[in-house]
Amino acid sequence: MRAPLAPALAGKFDLSGKHGLVLGIANEQSIAAGCARAFACLGATLAATYLNEKAKPYVAAVTDALPCDILLPCDVRESGSLESVFAEITRRWGKLDFFLHAIAFAPREDLHGRVVDSSAAGFASAMDISCHSFLRAAKLAEPLMQNGGTMLAVTFYGSERVVAHYNLMGPVKAALESSVRYAAAELGPKGIRVHAISPGPIKTRAASGIERFDELLARAAADAPEHQLATIEDVGGLAAFLVSDAARMITGTVIPVDGGQHLLA
Ligand code: NAD
After folding, report:
1. Closest C-alpha residue for ligand 1 atom 33
2. Percent helix / strand / coil, the chain, rounded to 5
3. Annotated catalytic sites, by residue?
4. What pLDDT tens digit does each residue of the chain (265 aa) get?
5. CATH number for the domain including 90?
6. How much distance in Å is there from the Cα of 143 to the middle of ligand 1?
7. 94: exposed, middle or buried (C-beta count within 10 Å: 0-12, 13-18, 19+)?
8. From the CA of 180, how far away is ligand 1's center (Å)?
9. Residue 2, domain member (yes or no)
10. Could you tell me if residue 112 is inside a domain?
11. Which sign does the torsion angle of CA 57, 95, 34, 69 carry?
12. For the chain, what is the domain count?
């Protein structure tokens, strides 16, 4: 028999009535797709974006299967693109309870070379798309979160330790995690919570840009105490918890979803 829920917890995991924006769905395999499905499953109303017309059908394949209110193009390299998304959310909803930023990019030649060889332009582009766009989204979301809210970024352990072939994305994710901590401190007084979720390696389109990614997957499965790879559903479960009222006193964290791989030296 199930114990009755303590009154303080009743309804806290439910996302009904919450409005959330999901940035970074490329296709069914995207981490953002797993998160969008988890948010929707718990009752959230969603907006999502696609990179360009070529990507749109693959993103729509995910969002068509969900209640998704708003689907708009967004390329964070283009000035005004993120702003248009938030303008439409303001017009349609007038508020936002959470957003997930699951966007990353580094130019191939910089990603595949040594960090010390990275070009200034490649480094700047990777930082802009993968890190500063999170801060821009945070700034645009802030006025829509009058009753508090949650902002989520997605990072990787290569930020802390040198992971073979992760290269330039290591320093970029380190900057993203630090940005999350500063944003959490700055926005906390407004009841806005900010986190980075740190999944173990998952086979996605972005991951296929990392050299020898299959070796990273094999090592993660062999080394992680749970001896299994995290799935996008595992990431979705954590993301949905973090945006729920059950996580109301948690902010500024980097939380691994990696079967314990981060524990190992
Ligand atoms: P993915 O390819 O499914 O998603 C990456 C997304 O970034 C795509 O939707 C792409 O359109 C978007 N993007 C790239 N450039 C953009 C731009 N200029 N404007 C707007 N969107 C842009 O891959 P994923 O693995 O789901 O990646 C999502 C996040 O998860 C990334 O931050 C990635 O670094 C992170 N991550 C991935 C793994 C993994 O092993 N797959 C592990 C840890 C963290």
Report:
1. 104
2. 45, 15, 40
3. 166, 173
4. 777 777 778 799 999 999 999 999 999 999 999 999 999 999 999 999 999 999 999 999 999 999 999 999 999 999 999 999 999 999 999 999 999 999 999 999 999 999 999 999 999 999 999 999 999 999 999 999 999 999 999 999 999 999 999 999 999 999 999 999 999 999 999 999 999 999 999 999 999 999 999 999 999 999 999 999 999 999 999 999 999 999 999 999 999 999 999 998 7
5. 3.40.50.720
6. 26
7. exposed
8. 17
9. no
10. yes
11. negative
12. 1
Mutate to test the pocket of ligand 1, among 83, 105, 140 (most ligand atoms within 8 A of CB): 105
> How many C-beta atoms lie closer than 10 Å to residue 33's C-beta?
28
In the reported structure, the alpha carbon of residue 260 is separated from the centroid of ligand 1 by a whole-number distance in angstroms of 22
Distance 66 CA to ligand 1 centre (A): 20
Q: What are 152's strand-pairing partners?
A: 100, 195
Closest to 134 measured CA to CA, from 235, 242, 23: 23
Question: What 8-state DSSP symbol labels residue 238?
Answer: H
> What's the confidence (pLDDT) of residue 7?
74
Please report the atom of ligand 1 found closest to the CA of residue 202. Answer: 40
Q: Spell out which residues line ligand 1, taking CB within 6 angstroms.
A: 24-26, 30-32, 51, 55, 74-77, 102-105, 129, 154-156, 199, 201-202, 204-207
**Neighbouring residues of 247: CB distance < 8 A, sequence distance ≥ 6:** 150, 193, 241
Atom of ligand 1 nearest to the CA of 29: 3
Q: Could you list the residue range(s) of the whole structural domain that residue 122 is in?
A: 7-259
In a domain, 1, yes or no: no
Q: Determine, yes or no, domain membership for 265.
A: no
Report d(CA 250, CA 177) in Å as an integer.
15
